[in-house]
Amino acid sequence: MNAQAVRLKEDYFIGMISSNLFDNPFISKGLQIKFLLPRFIAPFLTILLCCACVGQAQPAQGSSEGEIIIDMHCHAAGLGYGGSGCFVSDKLRKSFKIGFYLRGYGVTKKLLEEHGDGLIIQKTSEQLRASRYVTSAIVLAMDGVIGPDGSLDRKNTEIYVPNEFVLQETAKYDNLYFGASVNPYRPDAIERLKQAVLEGALLIKWIPSIMQIDPADERIIPFYREMSAHNIPLLTHAGNERSFTMAANELSDPKRLELPLRLGVTVIAAHAAATGKNDGEDNMERLIGLMESYPNLYTDISSLTQINKLGYLSRLLRHKNILDHLLYGADYPLIETCICSPWVHVADLTIKQIFYIQGIRNPWDRDIELKKALGVPWNVFTRSKRLFRPEKRPRIAFSWCHK
Ligand SMILES: [Zn+2]
């Protein structure tokens, strides 16, 4: 199957689950009746009926409340309201995906218009505070594409979430940390990096495929040296990217991370590089090969319960030698959408487990219970505190941000 066909198949899947099944333009009426009814809907209703007879499942045993769990992969977003400086491309604004994400945050465009983009950060903090397991989250800024003249290329930037916005908003809540984003092609990238360190950023976030960054580009070496000197980790997307309307996926090849790894940067390849291939080799296998060679390489388990990444989590967990380099990330707000439903894992969970997990209201608690049930060892959830050491970083007060 060629790349376009894979993309169409994935888009079809997301389209199917994120809109009303019978309104989906990909599916003809005949197909709805002949194909979907016997294969999906009837078995689903049968299972549902059986489960109603089984009764309400009990909570999983062995929870470890009281430990510090940091979600190190939590997204921020905005449409520019309240002077946030955030924006998304026209294409993304018109796509169904934006409404899908806003619903995940529990906001609407109208609410953002009224209260400003800061409402997204406020909702994130509130949801997190209600979590039984997750103590805090690193909220990620997102720099844009940098053009040949060294300025922000707004036309080719899919999503922009400035450091200033994330810093200012996270400073209001004691359960949120600042995750900065600096495109290394900015002429003042090193100054921005130093500034982010001073402001208490716990990491630098990139999505190379949409920010048009080549991690293997030797022009970035001074930036990597500065990161290494400050011991600030790089969280960088690896594997194919499907959350946006365009992506140069070859830039998210895990093998391109060898340059920062050799320079001593702590690198976290997001999503275990799930999905996609480079040089004919599966991205996740390429990443695992590197993890066996570089002790400063980590990966996170965010997004691995999504419907378009079925099977990747169990494959990853089979590699026992890298388990102590896995980190817990949720990829919020996607955990609050139907693409992460426990029903997606019907082949790996009992009906009792599915009903229990489905019944959990808090998105982080649901995510933790789902990942626990799928075999993620407990110390993966608690590892971030030791890696990021937030107590060692300066904590910028809200009042300082408003000076
Ligand atoms: Zn993400």
TrEMBL record:
InterPro entries: Amidohydro-rel (IPR006680), Metal_Hydrolase (IPR032466). The lineage of its organism: Bacteria, Pseudomonadati, Thermodesulfobacteriota, Desulfobacteria, Desulfobacterales. Signal peptide: none annotated. This is Amidohydrolase 2. The keyword Oxidoreductase does not apply. It comes from uncultured Desulfobacterium sp. Residues 141-345 form the Amidohydrolase-related domain. SUPFAM superfamilies: Metallo-dependent hydrolases. One of its GO terms (molecular function) is hydrolase activity. Pfam families: Amidohydro_2. Keywords: Hydrolase. Gene3D superfamilies: Metal-dependent hydrolases. It comes from the Bacteria.
